[in-house]
Amino acid sequence: xxxxxxxxxxxxxxxxxxxxxxxxxxxxxxxxxxxxxxxxxxxxxxxxxxxxxxxxxxxxxxxxxxxxxxxxxxxxxxxxxxxxxxxxxxxxxxxxxxxxxxxxxxxxxxxxxxxxxxxxxxxxxxxxxxxxxxxxxxxxxxxxxxxxxxxxxxxxxxxxxxxxxxxxxxxxxxxxxxxxxxxxxxxxxxxxxxxxxxxxxxxxxxxxxxxxxxxxxxxxxxxxxxxxxxxxxxxxxxxxxxxxxxxxxxxxxxxxxxxxxxxxxxxxxxxxxxxxxxxxxxxxxxxxxxxxxxxxxxxxxxxxxxxxxxxxxxxxxxxxxxxxxxxxxxxxxxxxxxxxxxxxxxxxxxxxxxxxxxxxxxxxxxxxxxxxxxxxxxxxxxxxxxxxxxxxxxxxxxxxxxxxxxxxxxxxxxxxxxxxxxxxxxxxxxxxxxxxxxxxxxxxxxxxxxxxxxxxxxxxxxxxxxxxxxxxxxxxxxxxxxxxxxxxxxxxxxxxxxxxxx
Length: 502
Ligand code: ADP
Ligand code: ADP
Ligand code: MG
Known about the structure:
This protein is of the alpha+beta class. The chain folds into five domains: about 5-105, 3-Layer(aba) Sandwich (Rossmann fold), CATH 3.40.50; about 135-205, ATP-grasp fold, A domain (Dna Ligase, domain 1); about 205-335, ATP-grasp fold, B domain (D-amino Acid Aminotransferase, Chain A, domain 1); about 340-450, ATP-grasp fold, B domain (D-amino Acid Aminotransferase, Chain A, domain 1); about 460-500. Helix content is about 35%, strand content about 25%. Strands 13-12-9-10-11-14-19-18 form an eight-stranded antiparallel β-sheet. Strands 3-2-1-4-5 form a five-stranded parallel β-sheet. Strands 7-6-8 form a three-stranded antiparallel β-sheet, with helices on one face. A hairpin with a 5-residue loop joins strand 9 (about 210-215) and strand 10. The longest helix has 17 residues, at about 250-265. The radius of gyration is 23 Å and the shape is globular. The termini are far apart. Bound molecules: adenosine-5'-diphosphate (2 copies) and magnesium ion. The site of one adenosine-5'-diphosphate (ADP) has 14 residues, from strand 11.
């Protein structure tokens, strides 16, 4: 047992604040680090102490292991929380922290390293009979041999970077004739983005849901799961809306996936909070994708339905405490939704729209939680992820959580930049989402033409697909003159901009 008294949060934005709040409740002193671009940031003001660690670029500040460790020594810090992103999944950092005699709030460097490689992770869990997407279990190097395997697996296939993350380093190959070109592109992308050109093949699941299981493991060998999060609403293979529980899991399937997730965690002697990601196909078969060895962006939905503070649990585990509950003690209570409010323009392919938060007014009230790191008048820096806030709503059931989300989106006032708020409302009002009958293709299927926003979106799937096919053929700008999805009204992106929320 090693009581933590002073915690450095090696991160910024909403997650740095969120971690510090729990630390403060536990009577732990907090230290913020910040870059020159974040001098005015809320996490800097909230912390008991704050140290500038360098210029704006992450590589010169938030990723400087040596500088961060030096700050720890100087200020007598006894633990580091890495948040998500940045150094959170860097095994070398976890190792260095440990060597410096500081507690790393996360799993062992070995577990991080193992699960950081999708291929090594698959190999490690093989002994546990975990279902996996058909494909190769090793890095592909020989193009001809790889083509043969891809043909056996059956097109379309996905070429994936073993070291990939954040939805990057993935290429869909529809036909064998494109294979070689796509493989070369995948390898060079993986090399430049992750410093590791290892790629492998997975069967491309046509209409999957992304369902992940939250796990917690302590240093005494206890591992539990905290049920699932449904994260199928994605753009660029990256989540925008998450919820817990999923609208489609039966208690049996939930228990089976939970058991698998615990086995995956056991395969790497997992300690702390982690997430095991799965794809669920149309026939409700699930397949292990990867494990994320950190606190996940969307962890609040799990907190809302379990009543647990995941950051407190992480800290207690890091101090050496055994979990204070067993699997049987955990139950799902109510329903939670999260919308990631990004500084992105949904009408323009969700491209980042950086600028100043001229107006910024948060929604409030029963069942509404906003985790953010900004205030009115602040600028969203161009150097980092453009997430402004996580808007979380919680209700007795899914219907109530959806109603609260719509109400909260309507109350949320942001001007100066485009955000994903109107997209969130579109999703909440869409029949496919409301019925629970949706998958990772939601945006592709229903939101290719953002003008459907101003038409009533409750359309038959095929009707929309047909209209979108004629409207678009891949060219967004045509939408301004073509008939919209319903009743022949002419609505386009420019109209949508006018009509959209504040
Ligand atoms: P998660 O896996 O937690 O759902 P994503 O899939 O969106 O989150 O993100 C994938 C990668 O990008 C992870 O390494 C995550 O830590 C990082 N990341 C996500 N959002 C942010 C952010 N707002 N700031 C920094 N890093 C982020
Ligand atoms: P990352 O490390 O970037 O998070 P993941 O393997 O977790 O990579 O996949 C991210 C997303 O990409 C998934 O949520 C899913 O939408 C899509 N995806 C990944 N693998 C497949 C697959 N085999 N078939 C279809 N979609 C996939
Ligand atoms: Mg993933």
